[in-house]
Amino acid sequence: MKSVWIKKALSVLLAGGIVFPLAHSGCSHSSEEQGTSLERLSPDNPIEKWGEVFQPSVLTREQRLAELEWFRKAAEPLRGIKIISTAENIETHYWESRVLARAFRDITGIEVDHRIIGEGDLVDQIKDQIENGVVHAHIYVNDSDTIGWHLRTQGVVTLSEYLKGEGAQYTNPGLDLPDFINLEFGQDFDGNLLQLPDQQFVNLYWFRYDWFTREDIKAQFKAKYGYELGVPVNWSAYEDIAEFFTNTPVDGKKVYGHLDYGKPSPSLGWRFTDAWLSIAGVGDKGLPNGIPVDEWGIRVEGTIPVGSSVTRGGDLNGPAAVYALEKYLEWMKKYAPPEALQWEWVDSGPQAARGDIAQQIFQYVTWLSDPRFHSADSPVCDKYGKPKWRVAPTPHGDYWEKGMKVGYQDQGSWTIPKTTKGKELAAAWLWAQFAGSKTVDLKKFIVGGTPVRRSTIFSEYLTQNIESYGGIVDFYRSPVENQWTGSGRNVPYYPGMCTLWWQNVAKAITGELTPQQAMDKLASEQDAMMASPQVAALLHAHVPRLNPERPREYWYDQPGAPKPPQPRMKPETIDYETLIKQWTRR
């Protein structure tokens, strides 16, 4: 579902203009940063034209022109080629489709049909292509959550080999791989690069800073709960704050203390795999995903998945996982708007901007690029368009321990199936590099809020405009950013396993199954899929081998996960300004 913003943005882009989502929000722009309408630029020199358009940039004008000229020259043997690339339906990819593909064609002569589809459909297409050889696209922006599947099927191009060999002449000397954030998300166990980051967004806690700092509201909260209103450190405090705001009018108006979504659909599964269970405390300490048990509840010995049921040493149906599902259901039904049960993630994303939501424990920050979070006429912004909201670390549940991952980062990454060869492979590789180049990445962040380069995050432009981002830039500059990770290498068959999640969670929402029954069924089905001959036939390395079943008590007596039932944590909050100081790099 496209938002009103997307429709407006596309109409402007189709008319030839360039959108600056923050241009009206009180940010300062230099004359160069303001950009230039395409109609006022000569089409006779595409390098100069697009060099002007891609502003602001971390590169100077001369550096931009040099990088774009490199793309033009490198593509000379490929002019006239047409390729198909496919990405999911978020703002960043719409912009790539309408602007970057056009720029790439003008500069290189390569035609890119950049198709935007739902994430579930995208996973199905790349699965069909890798498993059955049916070519749907030459290149995909496929989440790095699939890395465990890719490294086991060996069905995608190993980029680190290609760029040194056959693809060397098509590899940008300014690619600068160390500049990419979380490059390791797309690497196999040996550090080989299978996926190149294209966009990334983190899942953080979102809250109404203006309400949380009002003395009258703070006094009411402390009188009722006995501690200070602030950023919740754990789920106990989040729950108290949710109850407080849901039952306490603000300026005489009904508000809600929680926001979520619950419509049965593939995105309901991502709601849990991204990574609700780890936030609750499923799995073990150790980055990126818990060792030896990860947030999907999968126990791994070395690189081999050996089970996700508690009876096999996993944690997918243990007390922590059941607690995670119970709290999800309880909070949505008690503290979220009633219509949340009918929302998918694309519906829920912008809803906090409507003005009656106090906090959201689980916000993908790509939605915060929507102008409704940055406009002077928005109920969540001041008269200058500066945000009244902030983002902060995700509160953790009763089973979480220090040393575990703190939250989730989604990294859409360029992924090339081995069915793409020759000149189409070279063209696809050029397109991927162009879309994440230093020339364009800062501009792409301004549009979609999905940075992939350190040079973007630490740019002078974002330093000057940091207050407009409500803590997002502070987070990416912080020393704790690496504690938010993707699904990781342990998930051996993502396309099939992810569908099991939403189907079972949906039955808990409808009441067809209890939370324990739903997680028992999910764990059993996940183990069965990992052990199936059909899956084993698709995998060429690190194939799952299930542990024999043992009594639950045996595993509870072992160190780490699965953990026995835990008591409710004492509620804890932290002052936001204190938190930001902790995030500041020294």
Report on the architecture of this protein.
By secondary structure, the protein is of the alpha/beta class. It has 3 domains: 4-199 and 412-483, 3-Layer(aba) Sandwich (D-Maltodextrin-Binding Protein, domain 2), CATH 3.40.190; 202-261 and 341-408, no CATH class; 266-322 and 490-556, no CATH class. It is built from 24 helices and 12 strands. Strands 1, 2, 3, 4, 8, 9, 10 and 11 form an 8-stranded mixed beta sheet that branches. Strand 1 (82-88), helix 4 and strand 2 (111-117) form a beta-alpha-beta unit. Helix 11 (266-273) packs across helix 20 (494-510). The relative contact order is 0.18.
Give the class from helix and strand content and strand pairing: alpha/beta
The portion of residues forming beta strands comes to: 5-15%
Kindly give the count of domains.
3
Shape by Cα distribution: globular
The CATH superfamily of the largest domain bears the name Periplasmic binding protein-like II
Give the beta-strand count: 12
Largest sheet: 8 strands, mixed
Integer average pLDDT: 92
Contiguous runs where pLDDT drops below 50 for at least 5 residues: 1-41
Radius of gyration: 24 Å
Kindly report how far apart the N and C termini lie. Answer: 42 Å
Helix content: 25-40%
CATH architecture of the largest domain: 3-Layer(aba) Sandwich
Q: Find the CATH topology of the largest domain.
A: D-Maltodextrin-Binding Protein, domain 2
* Highest-level CATH class of the largest domain: Alpha Beta
Number of H- or I-type helical stretches: 24
What tags apply to this protein structure?
586 residues, alpha/beta, 3 domains, disordered N terminus, D-Maltodextrin-Binding Protein, domain 2, globular, 39% helix, two-stranded antiparallel sheet
